[in-house]
Amino acid sequence: MVLVTAQASALPARFATALASMRNPVLRPEVTLMEIPGPNRVAPYSVALEGDITVAEQDIATGRFVVLHDPQGQENWQGDFRVITMIRATLEPEMAGDPMLHEVAWSWITDEIVEGGHDVVALGGTVTRVLSTSFGALDGTPDAVDLEIRASWTPTDTDLGAHLRLWVDLMSTVGGLPPLPEGVTPLIPRRAGAWQ
To answer: Is the Cβ–Cβ distance between 164 and 22 less than 8 Å?
Structure first.
């Protein structure tokens, strides 16, 4: 695993540049990031972050952001970097029956990419909806709808900080947070254990 805090001199120049762009992101106050071990069998270099969005002491969305780098490139990536994301959130039960939920959730990804001006190739992913109904001793527990979005893409540049922000914005959308108005900078309280 390569840490975001790793010494740049020990890394390929393009990967070091990409990591530098991810350091000290400006995030909404509801977002906490923590570095976790990245996969080590898929690519020679990787970094991974886990994120939570917390409102009123409740996690409303969680996810993972993984960057893979292979200096030789990989044919199915169509490049030398690959961003892999996962987001999970519990939705309102009335959304369980919405026949367009999958398409709408996928449009959140494509909209974030287009509106952010990100140039990506080989975009793909899945949207999964799980409806849980409780029985027996758990009877009376409200039905729950979990939405999970998995997506991956190949960025055409090394500004992976922009892709990290895209993922955080998407996680905020899935969690139900309203977007921050243009030009508004979030206030960032210091939290113990938060990744910076």
So the answer is: yes
